[in-house]
Design a protein that fits this description.
By secondary structure, the protein is of the alpha+beta class. Helices cover 32% and strands 26% of the residues. The strands form two sheets. Strands 1, 2, 3, 4, 5, 6 and 8 form a seven-stranded mixed sheet that branches. Strands 9-10-7-11 form a four-stranded antiparallel sheet, with no helix packed on it.
């Protein structure tokens, strides 16, 4: 058994996100079917894990600045992923976990979900549990519908980011696609968006329509990004739910930018690399917004 490991868990953006009304019958009642083209970006958290001789396990989650996170550790997906695996296997997995976070919280980039997936795969490796990717994804789905996407054992073992994929159903159907090359500029507000509240607004104001999975898959397998195909069905509900997001996007649009929203927000992105003149124009109107140059990986 290995004694320790250090891993990177990568953020994602939703290049396309289609959402259907929540299901009203069956075992998935209350869930919203989706079809999304998700792609990892070169922005990551770091997780250090080491096996301990005995319980209790130890957890530390801090920002890269050194500041502690603003929530109780018991509610963090890292802690919950570890607890879930112990329950599923009916055994103790004494471990020290230290997370250094760079992915903004509440921004729609899956930082917490990526961390949870990293812990599940890391524990599987550290304790030589022998769980395969499908088994890990089933467990991950119990924690959150977007976490299975981040379970990519082949990429994990090679140290790469998770492969891009078209994720559909209730997050349980994952079809890996080829990686696409593009620079991306993130526009990160100082506030987040409540995922639950955004979905409530979608149910109240969203248009009931059937998702065209094939159209999303066609875009994701074309080998490039067509800016005219990028879309997010949660953008309008997010703007209705969070007036500050609506004001921010309106200001960006008035400056000639047309940002896309990732997930339920609040992180926005544009294709390409903004130059200093463009950055200065944005900061003159929105001085608190963080601008991060990154790329699809």
């Amino acid at each position: 058994m290995a004694t320790g490991t250090t891993i990177r868990t990568y953020a994602k953006i939703n290049l396309i996100l289609k959402v259907a009304p929540q299901l009203s019958t069956g075992s998935a009642t209350g869930f919203h079917p989706i079809c999304s083209w998700m792609h990892a970006i070169d922005l990551s958290d770091q997780i250090e894990m080491s096996a301990l001789p005995q319980c209790p396990s130890e957890f530390s989650v801090r920002w890269a600045s050194g500041d502690p996170v603003q929530w109780e550790i018991e509610s963090d997906l890292v802690f919950r992923a570890h607890a879930l695996l112990e329950r599923e296997l009916v055994r103790s997995l004494p471990v020290r976990v230290r997370v250094t976070k760079s992915i903004p919280d509440g921004g729609g980039m899956g930082g917490g979900s990526s961390n949870a997936a990293g812990v599940l795969m890391g524990l599987n490796q550290l304790f030589e549990l022998g769980l395969d990717q499908d088994q890990l994804r089933v467990m991950a789905h119990a924690l959150g519908t977007d976490i299975p996407y981040f379970i990519d054992t082949e990429s994990f073992e090679s140290g790469a980011a998770q492969a891009p994929a078209v994720v559909s159903g209730i997050g349980d159907r994952i079809q890996a696609t080829d990686r696409v090359s593009s620079e991306i500029t993130l526009l990160v507000p100082s506030f987040g968006c409540p995922t639950g509240g955004v979905y409530i607004a979608f149910d109240r104001f969203g248009e009931a329509c059937e998702i065209d999975d094939q159209a999303v898959l066609t875009s994701a397998t074309s080998g490039s990004i067509d800016p005219t195909k990028l879309s997010n069905d949660l953008c309008a509900p997010a703007r209705q739910t969070v007036p500050k997001l609506d004001a921010t996007m309106s200001t960006l649009e008035s400056l000639g930018f047309h940002p896309n929203l990732s997930g339920s927000g609040s992180t926005m992105f544009v294709l390409g690399h903004l130059d200093q003149f463009e950055i200065d124009r944005i900061h003159a109107e929105l001085p608190e917004i963080r601008i991060i140059h990154t790329r699809l990986v």
